């Protein structure tokens, strides 16, 4: 077991590596050539234009202003400067609330850490149960609950602390839920007119032999919402079209690549082979080949578009129905339309950018079967994912590689390389699986048939959290695969499970401290460096970029990735709450993580990420719920731990804790969750009345007519859907300040603060 | 362990006692003097008028027509004769659907019994594992799964049967859910105008310093539902008034009793003592005393009524809001009104008869605390109810009685009586507790703050089911109190619990067979005899009845009692499904129970019970859900049983069963439950349009004005609320056939069938 010194060394290494990342970042970000990698958000918002083309040649690529190198950490206060209302205006409510999760971690754990260090730690340290025993122990263990002897009355301290921590966490959670709910309500209320405020998605329109779907929808809503129905848009099945468009895009990229190559070296026309991945087949001229391919695909796309608009088989049994008033839409979205609850299903239309078009046509019965399949698949994924990985690992050994690529044998047989490969190979299959896991979970959610990106991400996040809870948290505490645990747990009594885990918890403290430093501290620092986008941007810039738009596409700002990011944070909440009472030495590491991550992600959200959709913080109930789960888990484990310490007389007092916590959760759910699921009629009516008074001659129909058309139909060109999307979100017209970069602090100026207040 | 012969003897005894009950019933019911005990429903519906006063004196009290004694079982076919649509018209949809639960039992278990007898029984019988062993065994055991040797391949039969039974049960459940849902939809659609179709209950109206509640409500709904709001009624706090009224009623009863006594024996004025329960205090003339008391209370009631209507403190923050159209009401009931989800809570108003007035003023925060308290209280009630009972039992011993009432000592000391008391006393506390349990659970539900009788009953039924499941089902299988079980289970592994229970199940078959015969068969027969109402009716009739109305009040028809009746049936479903695969010998007993109970309750519903409210079968999702629970329990227990038989290779096949069953439940829930919770807008619009076309000059406001006034304000007289209630339910005017009783078959004549068809 590691001593305090070991941890100090590990901390030093990790702090140094984090500092190295930060240093690299500070040097790279002030190079003009990387400007689009580290500040894409400003380009996308149109607040920063290209630096290339102005100034001296050297200035274009390398920063020669040496003063800027000195203040290499000054992005940190800069990231914290932007006030929250401006941040909401700049990056959306989702991003602003996502940052509040880190803030929540700081708010919860800083007082808990102080209290634990002031009370729990001295009690543990002075107990001296381990001193006399013959067990090997370290200083860390002397600071943990393991040091308190059996049946000691000192456990009352831990009990009281458990209550104090629970009440504090619940208080902060409740306050935060309240704040986020009112932020959401205020955001929705102050938003300008949006198509999704007036629009309801209706699915599973029953087939009618006499009427086409479009007329059927119109008649149904004219009859059942006579005073409110305005217009509707049917949904086309454009899945084939979208695959054609993406094919064309990749061919176009290759064409551009070859063109560029030819233009640089005009001596040789580039050629390619027509067979699989260009490895065999007859040789043809690459530029001619791709030009003809692109032309063919353009033709096919035009044909397909024509077919879609004319052939009624392409119309899906779904439609976006728009209403005259927000009130009418709110009513339709929140009520059942038809006696049969599996047809004419209505729900709020997602934001146009948020729609996941491919799932529009999933029929009702299939939905419930799909959910069963995914539930079973996820169970197997969670508990048996080691089986295929072990199989791959058994294949990927030295002998296998030598057989497959015999000419590498002499290199592999070098002793150093051999041992390196042998140490590295078994892990690689697992690592690859873990990297792809969020994408696998996303695919699962897509198969389940959700129709908006935000729900897809939230669903994937839930699954990822469960996976991490079982395989990272439990898997690290009780070593062994998840399936072995499952098998063991079903053979244990319900009482024993918390005992087994509870007892192991203090012993794993050093492991988790290291984990927090590597995954949390160094991971954060790596996130800000953006190594992958940096490399890809320069590759693309070199091989593909011709026009300004190409450069914009090459930027790849990414998003904050709720589906993988949030479960990662939740793991820290879980660790913090579980260790708070027993081994509080872990808490400072978690506090540092939350602080660091808050600064890093605030910087990234301001300067880099470009959120694809705006769900107005619809994910908060999930975040809240998972922290409550962590709280209950920590209480159960404390109960298990104390019962092995023969302090069973405390158990009745501990039982009240989870009961109260669960009740607190139900109370919060009833009190605050409706703000995230429902749209109150009073609000709708208020906004309708205001709007009528302000703009009495508004042509709403025109405004809504084309809001929910499939992106590929928006314009004649099929690649400008992002821009089209942007147009829909009609923001109040403001004079945008096309600021030239203030190189070190790319923050909005104080003037642009007025933007947020005019967002009303 | 009982042999087949023992069970035969027990069956004979129970059949004989059931026959004796039936015989007594057939003799008692044809006596004219008991007519109001056995046919109150017909009196209440006005289809049967008093028999007294017509014909010869003897005929008035005793039936002298000896032919009618011969056909003593002919009520049975008579009870089955009434077709279902007429039954719905006669007794309401709730009653008709309640009967379908028994029918469902027959539908599920008759084919299962046949299949089990044809396949499982021979397989068990011919296995002969017990023959060679030294264990004591009976013929019953030879018919059960215990007879199959370890690791036998014959367990495949049981596996296949488990699948067959599950699929059959699910198929029938799905079909029945569909039928009941469409019955409900049809019933609601064909109902004539009801106030609850237009009315929404709004609760937690926030206090406003500037406006009284009535105006506040009006303004709020005029603003937020401008085209639909019609009128509203505030809710008064009449709890004190209702206690005064009930006091007056009891005094009035005593006055009537003394008056009657004096009129029979004019020699002596009755007197009473004014102290506690009339045991001490000064002696006064009873008639004068009660006359003055009644007068005083009448005055107080008048005062209180006056106060309620004038003092604004008596107005609760709740109101019944009525709308112009069903569409408007449906919209308001199913949406959230205000940004804060804890104020302006709207929900469908219950039927006027169904309103539970006392809970109208429970504030929102208190609601969630009350639920926590009741949840904890119910947990203790379920697991620790034996503690107070054991305490009472320890007090209630012979010595204690002798000390309390010393003059009884010589009687008690007689040996026979002493042993009788000693055998009887310990059980009596438990028996009393079990009799009062449904009332205790009802009180709990009332404390939780539900606002309609139907929800109160459904909630109590759920709790009663859980209590029975733990204390009767599990308690009989694993002897010991529920708390001991809980303690044991938390120390067992999750795998072992189904094993322990599964193994005990076949051993308890004879116990449950006896239980079914005593509780089910004889219980049914006792139900039809109505011994308690019979005695009470005659007592009241003798002491209190003066007018025709008194006689109507003395009838006490009762209801079918969903809160205690349905959990009882569910226990039989549970037993049937659990024993179907292992010990099918139990099935015929259950089938007989369902058949007998169906006939008995059909008779009672037609002739006796008077349902207090009509919830349009809102309880069906609960019924369905509990049968699914029973199915899953039976599958888990089979898994446990088979794993002790070392047939673990079958377990993977069995695991799929509960997964599929739970998925089936979720599918049914999504597909059919909305019909019980929501009111589709299409329906509402259809009925509105029809009504507008038919009765264009209807004054809806007048119709709704007084629908939701507290019963005590309905008329000047406070005892005629039942009649007032009846008035509200405006049924189509039909010429009621005041039929004189056809003594043996008090069924509606064929002509009255037309009633049901005109109910549209």
From TrEMBL, chains A, B:
UniProt GO molecular function: calcium-activated cation channel activity
Keyword Transport belongs to the record: yes
GO cellular component: plasma membrane
Annotated Low complexity bias: 749-760
Region called Disordered, residue ranges: 736-760
Domain CSC1/OSCA1-like 7TM region: 370-642
Chief site of localization: membrane
InterPro entries referenced in this protein's UniProt entry, alphabetically: Csc1-like (IPR045122), CSC1/OSCA1-like_7TM (IPR003864), CSC1/OSCA1-like_cyt (IPR027815), CSC1/OSCA1-like_N (IPR032880)
Intracellular or extracellular location(s): Membrane
All copies of domain CSC1/OSCA1-like N-terminal transmembrane, residue ranges: 7-176
Domain CSC1/OSCA1-like cytosolic stretches: 197-359
Membrane recorded as keyword: yes
Keyword tags: Calcium, Ion channel, Ion transport, Membrane, Transmembrane, Transmembrane helix, Transport
TM annotation in the entry: 7-30, 101-125, 155-173, 372-396, 416-443, 464-483, 571-601, 627-644, 650-668
Membrane topology of the entry: Multi-pass membrane protein
Entry-linked PANTHER family: PROBABLE MEMBRANE PROTEIN DUF221-RELATED, RE44586P
Family indicated by similarity: Belongs to the CSC1 (TC 1.A.17) family.
Protein name from the UniProt record: CSC1-like protein At3g21620
UniProt organism field: Acacia crassicarpa
């Amino acid at each position: 077991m590691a001593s305090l010194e070991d941890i100090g060394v590990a901390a030093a290494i990790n702090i140094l590596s984090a500092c190295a990342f930060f240093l690299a970042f500070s040097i790279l970000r002030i190079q003009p050539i990387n400007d689009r990698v580290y500040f894409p958000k400003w380009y996308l918002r149109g607040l920063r234009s290209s630096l290339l083309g102005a100034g001296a040649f050297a200035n274009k690529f390398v920063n020669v202003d040496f003063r800027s190198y000195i203040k290499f950490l000054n992005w940190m206060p800069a990231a914290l400067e932007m006030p929250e209302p401006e941040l909401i205006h700049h990056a959306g409510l989702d991003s602003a609330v996502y940052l509040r999760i880190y803030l929540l971690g700081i708010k919860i754990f800083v007082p808990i850490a102080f209290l634990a260090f002031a009370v729990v730690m001295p009690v543990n340290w002075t107990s001296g149960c381990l001193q006399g025993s013959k067990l090997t122990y370290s200083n860390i263990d002397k600071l943990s609950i393991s040091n308190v002897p059996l049946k000691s009355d000192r456990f009352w301290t831990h009990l009281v602390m458990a209550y104090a921590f629970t009440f504090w966490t619940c208080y902060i959670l409740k306050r935060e839920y309240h704040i986020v709910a009112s932020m959401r309500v205020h955001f929705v209320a102050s938003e300008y007119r949006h198509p999704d405020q007036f629009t309801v998605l209706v699915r599973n329109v029953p087939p009618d032999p006499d009427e086409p779907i479009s007329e059927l929808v119109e008649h149904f809503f004219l009859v059942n919402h006579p005073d409110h129905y305005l217009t509707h848009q049917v949904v086309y099945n454009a899945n084939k079209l979208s695959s054609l468009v993406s094919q064309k895009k990749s061919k176009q990229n290759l064409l551009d690549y070859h063109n560029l190559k030819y233009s640089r070296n005009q001596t040789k026309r580039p050629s390619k082979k027509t067979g699989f991945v260009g490895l065999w087949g007859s040789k043809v001229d690459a530029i001619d080949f791709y030009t003809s391919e692109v032309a063919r695909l353009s033709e096919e796309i035009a044909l397909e578009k024509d077919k879609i608009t004319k052939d009624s088989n392409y119309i899906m049994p779904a439609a976006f129905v728009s209403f005259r008033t927000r009130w009418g839409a709110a009513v339709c979205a929140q009520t059942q339309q038809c006696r049969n609850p599996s047809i004419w299903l209505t729900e709020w239309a997602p934001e146009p950018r948020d729609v996941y078009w491919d799932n529009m046509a999933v029929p009702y019965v299939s939905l419930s079967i799909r959910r069963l399949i995914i539930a079973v698949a996820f169970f197997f994924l969670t508990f048996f994912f080691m089986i295929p990985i072990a199989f791959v690992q058994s294949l990927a050994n030295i002998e296998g590689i030598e057989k497959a690529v015999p000419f590498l044998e002499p290199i592999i047989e070098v002793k150093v390389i051999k041992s390196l490969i042998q140490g590295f190979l078994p892990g690689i299959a697992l690592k690859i699986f873990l990297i792809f896991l969020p994408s696998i979970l996303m695919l699962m959610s897509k198969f389940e048939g959700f129709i908006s990106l935000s729900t897809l991400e939230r669903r994937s996040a839930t699954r990822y959290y469960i996976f991490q809870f079982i395989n990272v948290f439990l898997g690290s505490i009780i070593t062994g695969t998840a399936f072995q645990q499952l098998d063991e747990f079903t053979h244990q009594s319900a009482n024993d499970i918390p005992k087994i885990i509870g007892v192991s918890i203090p012993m794993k403290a050093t492991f988790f401290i290291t984990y927090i430093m590597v995954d949390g501290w160094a991971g954060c620092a790596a996130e800000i460096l953006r190594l992958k986008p940096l490399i890809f941007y320069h590759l693309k810039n070199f091989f593909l970029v011709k026009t300004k738009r190409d450069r914009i596409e090459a930027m790849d700002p990414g998003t904050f990735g709720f589906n993988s990011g949030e479960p990662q944070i939740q793991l820290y909440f879980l660790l913090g709450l579980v260790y708070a009472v027993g081994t509080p030495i872990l808490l400072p590491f978690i506090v540092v993580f939350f602080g660091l991550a808050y600064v890093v992600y605030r910087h990234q959200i301001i300067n880099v990420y470009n959120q694809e959709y705006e769900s107005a913080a619809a994910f908060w109930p999930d975040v809240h719920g998972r922290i409550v789960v962590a709280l209950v888990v920590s209480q159960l484990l404390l109960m298990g731990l104390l019962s092995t310490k023969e302090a069973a007389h405390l158990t009745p007092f501990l039982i009240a804790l989870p009961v109260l916590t669960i009740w607190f959760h139900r109370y919060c759910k009833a009190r605050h969750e409706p703000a995230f699921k429902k749209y109150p009629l009073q609000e709708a009516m208020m906004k309708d009345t205001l709007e009528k008074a302000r703009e009495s001659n508004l042509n709403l129909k025109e405004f809504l007519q084309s809001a929910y058309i499939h992106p590929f139909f928006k314009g004649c060109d099929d690649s400008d859907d992002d821009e089209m999307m942007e147009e829909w979100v009609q923001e109040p017209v403001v004079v945008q300040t096309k600021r030239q970069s203030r190189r070190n602090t790319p923050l909005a100026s104080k003037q642009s603060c007025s933007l947020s207040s005019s967002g009303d």
